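Reminder to self: tokens first, then the designed residues, so the page reads top to bottom the way the pipeline ran.
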């Protein structure tokens, strides 16, 4: 997935893009070299009725990189999240089995006509205005997986708890040590081609989904890139950082997943 470049060159490219501060990705430029590229946003959501309209409308308002479809995966909400999202213009998919990864997986399958997938959360913490910046390296052919880094961007005070910040740093250091990828954040706002995501054979159906994607992408030599992203205080109570139990469980899923796929290879590839 490195367009014929050696892995060393791909890694260097990723670091340059990640540390550019985002200047190269701002401004009025046409990022779609191929106007036929279909881009879909996938938003997992559980009881986000107070935030989901803002997220959907913010994405649909983007003109630099128009989206083919905005898909909200209602993960068993009881507050009318799905109906609010539908009125805002999203395609709504219902996934009753709880789990962040299950919702993302259901959205990936539902976006069957898309070439590129953008994933972000439905709590309005991610800024839809960062969409062009997150997509730019991938659409320009410079990267295979792009993650919006809150560490390289800006994080509103109170948007992440201290234990979330600490756990994120530990996982990022582990990924650097084990996989040689210069990771600063495991942010949810990311972009990847749908075919590349399918090739990762995703299995983690809870909070390990995001790090599994990054670990397996490293195992397949995908070119990894980070861009600065803005992160705001979410609307409502966090399912992860809102309780100690939720934080511990999410932390365990993330750290164990980071280690679990250290020797992973796709099916049919000899170890």
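Designed residues (271 positions):
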């Amino acid at each position: 997935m490195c367009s014929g470049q050696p892995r060393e060159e791909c890694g260097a490219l990723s670091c340059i893009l990640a540390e550019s501060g985002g200047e190269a990705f701002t401004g009025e430029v046409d990022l779609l070299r191929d106007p036929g590229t279909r881009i879909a946003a996938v938003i997992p959501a559980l009881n986000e009725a107070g935030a989901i309209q803002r997220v959907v409308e913010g994405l649909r308002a983007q003109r630099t990189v128009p989206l083919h479809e905005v898909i909200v995966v209602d993960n068993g909400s009881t507050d009318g999240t799905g109906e609010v999202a539908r009125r805002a213009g999203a395609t709504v998919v219902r996934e009753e089995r709880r789990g962040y990864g299950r919702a993302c997986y259901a959205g990936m399958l539902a976006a069957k006509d898309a070439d590129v997938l953008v994933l972000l959360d439905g709590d309005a913490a991610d800024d839809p205005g960062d969409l062009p910046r997150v997509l730019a390296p991938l659409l320009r052919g410079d990267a295979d997986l792009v993650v919006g880094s809150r560490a390289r961007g800006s994080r509103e005070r109170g948007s992440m708890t201290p234990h979330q910040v600490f756990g994120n740093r530990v996982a990022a250091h582990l990924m650097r040590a084990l996989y040689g990828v210069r990771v600063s954040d495991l942010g949810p706002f990311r972009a990847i081609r749908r075919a590349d995501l399918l090739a990762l054979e995703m299995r983690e159906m809870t909070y390990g989904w995001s790090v599994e994607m990054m670990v397996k992408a490293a195992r397949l030599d995908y070119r990894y890139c980070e861009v600065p992203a803005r992160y705001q205080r979410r609307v409502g109570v966090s399912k992860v950082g809102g309780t100690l139990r939720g934080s511990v469980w999410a932390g365990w899923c993330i750290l164990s997943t980071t280690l679990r796929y250290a020797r992973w290879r796709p099916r049919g590839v000899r170890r």
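The two ends are 19 Å apart (CA to CA).
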